Amino acid sequence: MTRRYSAKLLFQYRVDHGKGSAKRRTCEERIIVYSAATPASAIAEAKRLGRASECSTTNHDGIPWHIEFIGVMDIIPHGLEMEPETVWYDIRERLLPSERRASLVLSDVELRKRASEP
Considering the entire predicted model, what is its pTM? Predict the structure, then answer.
């Protein structure tokens, strides 16, 4: 029986200037959804999908840059608590979440801006 999983993958964007890479790099955390038969195969599939997303090219100045898969940050099986449209969830305690709403959630303006990004 296959089961749906979500995994959070970590990638780094690395520019190769020929004299070593910068220590501070732009990183991407990507959440993917996929199916696997067992927990072990789910981990292997997350890593396979991460490695398959790696790429290298050159920028407009001819300098090589790379998107490199670093690893799996987290993985969750989709159980009964997951609605079909849910891809990720995290349960944690927060101090006064409704009172601190403005600092915890994005405004509609910021949400529209992010939703419009490529």
Answer: 0.78
